[in-house]
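ugh finaly. both done.
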Amino acid sequence: MNSAINTPWKKAVRVEPSKDYRVHVTMEDDETFELDLRHLITNREAFWRLKNDRYFRKVAVDPLGGLCWPGGEDISPTKIFHYMRPESNEG
């Protein structure tokens, strides 16, 4: 998703779910990284639905560049970096 909304923050434009409560994120400047959401999901009651892998995999990018799920769970674009882990270039 490429949002036409101009914002003062950097936006996510693509997200792909992975295993162990992780997602791969691509930002509008093509920076990519992995988010480890395990601590958030296991310790915050509001994110209880994300414990279900099938539901967790429904992650999407919202119009403001944050991450969201169908039931209303979300991570704002400015909070994304709190859960960031650099992508490994090994392979």
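ok and the 2nd:
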Amino acid sequence: MSRTLRRWLPPVAAMASLSMVASLALVVGSGTAQAEPTTAAEAKVELEKIEQEHSQLELQYNQVHQQLTDAQGKLAQTEADIASQREQVEAARVQVTQIALQKYQDQGVSSAAVILVSPDTESLLNQMSTMQQVEATSMTILQNYEAQSAQLQDLERSAETAVASVQAEEERLREVEEAGQVKVDEARAVLDRLSAEEAAALAAAQAAQEAAAASELGITVAPAATSTGTADAPASTAAAVVPAGDGSRASQVVAFAYSRLGYAYRYGGEGPSSYDCSGLTLVAYRNVGVSLPHRADWQFDMGVSVPISQLQPGDLVFYYPGISHVAIYVGDGMVIHASNERTGVIKTSLTYSGYPQGARRYV
């Protein structure tokens, strides 16, 4: 929490919205109430469900992160406005102080006294007119001070509201991260329960599903060579064979994807050492001058729709109903994507989760 945030800490603790809490509870708890998988087939179904729920949490994280950024920006602007307003209030206060001092010095002089000491009528009228003008100016200065002070109080109340909003978004981010970790732990628990024979059966079933989906889509899938990393350091990518590029922007996107194989996964990650799915695609395209938002579903709304059977290297492929995951197509029926905390950035079949929801081309 920044010093700015601490300085404006409001008396009421910020809470996440009930709808957000409820949605997180549904996602976190949806996979835990069922019986534990006892076969490779059951484990496969459970893992697929966990992966989809994890991708939905990533989508929520990026949405909340953007809301936090907006709230922080509003708070910063409000604080800048407060600083400027305080200067105006102080300037008005100085004027009011001068008026008060002048009135104190002149408090013994009444209108009757002015009449008695005036040498003639013209002089009297001039003095009375001057006094009225001074009084009117004084009233204007006093009213301005009151208005400026009231505006400052409004801004200070807005700052308290902005701080509460920042705190609420920070709490929501924490909840989404915790929910994501639950999904990671669930997946690891599923895999840990499998024997070596069951794990082999699971891998075979996954390969068969990918091949069947690719066949229906008319795509030939090359054997996958995956590489995983940790949160601390990416794994070696020496074994990755990067296809020769033609210098086009699409080939540069593919080259970037290969250069990040083995890097760690992190919610909201945009590099340089960790990424989430839309963070990886965002940076890959940023490097070739294309601006994409940090959300898979928003990226899906951009670019030109491409049939899966007509994919070209550099196109983006999207997954799961509602579009909550995205990968970079690199040719030969393969994609590179920031999968999850267990695997990091990997290269795998574009049909790894069954049928993609669609694809987009941006260059």
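summary for the 2nd one i guess: The chain has a mean pLDDT of 76.
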